[in-house]
Amino acid sequence: MTERLDVAVIGAGTMGSGIAQTFATFGHEVHLVDASEAALERARAGIQKSLQRFVKKEKMTEDEAAAVLARVLPETDLAQAVAAVDLAVEAVFENPQVKEEVFRALDEHAPEHAILASNTSSISITALGAVTRRPESVIGMHFMNPVPLMKLVEIVRGEKTSDEVVARTKAIAEGLDKVVGVAQDYAGFVSNRVLMPLINEAAFCLYEGVATPEDIDTIMKYGMNHPMGPLALADLIGIDVVVDILDYLHEQFGDPKFRCAPNLRRMRAAGKLGRKTGEGFYRYD
Ligand code: CAA
Predict the structure, then answer these.
(1) For 6-184, which CATH class?
(2) In the CATH hierarchy, which fold is given to the domain comprising 192-275?
(3) 35: Cβ below 6 Å to ligand 1?
(4) Which of 90, 154, 200, 250 is catalytic?
(5) CB of 53 closer than 6 A to ligand 1?
(6) What is the pLDDT of residues 111-128, one digit of tens each?
(7) Residues 238, 243, 246, 247, Cα dihedral to 10°
(8) Model-level pTM?
């Protein structure tokens, strides 16, 4: 294991709690920060549930799982939580104003040496760096869902991110047993720029009656050896997130290849957001 870090994860949603769990699994102390006590409680329950899956598979003992959970410290006061951190990972929801506010606060309260990372899936790292007095320390650390299982961390270097911060972040991610890919700061980086058109085209196939959801997913899952089909993956990511990223890519590149399929937009309007609402392309109990 690499040196033990003092880490803060800002935002206790699905991604934030998965990121916190992963750092804690590798021995780091994690301040998990959210303004909402209820979100922190949900995160703790989610982490416990995920850890139990590892215990059941005998990849972790009950004692180890308890120790991981104990290393995640739920906190509501950001200023206090980041006062001594080596790394802060912002994982609040995908809204530029909210993220900028978090970065201003990190700039004000985190120590000079700290790396200020964002788990954003599409927002510009350069723009987030620009609201701080230390854009050289600001970097993208894009984890994939479900974080404890997915191997990739997409590191995104902003216009002013220093080589030293890129190297340190890469070493930290590798210390979590992740594989790193580095991308420059353009909309969607690599992951979502390539993934979203795949999901969108699958949605168009359904919209145009080319095949049923089951057949679309079967063809892509078994034909391309993907772990799951693109429509099932859209349900996992969240239809609202998919629509937001497609709209952002469309706006940034002005290229019609990113136009969002009408059925995705309609599902979003109906609140059929995938697993999190119990219904998307499929139904979930
Ligand atoms: N914690 C611990 N274990 C978990 C878990 C979690 N959160 N989620 C699933 N598992 C385990 C299960 O216990 C199960 O283990 P066994 O097979 O040993 O019993 C295994 O994973 C499979 O789980 P399920 O049977 O529930 O199958 P699933 O289809 O629901 O989920 C999956 C499995 C890991 C999600 C797999 O299908 C997969 O890898 N899918 C692709 C995921 C992907 O592409 N993610 C990237 C999304 S894009 C993104 O995140 C970035 C963005 O910006 C939008």
Answers:
(1) alpha beta
(2) N-(1-d-carboxylethyl)-l-norvaline Dehydrogenase; domain 2 (1.10.1040)
(3) no
(4) 154
(5) yes
(6) 999 999 999 998 999 999
(7) -150
(8) 0.94
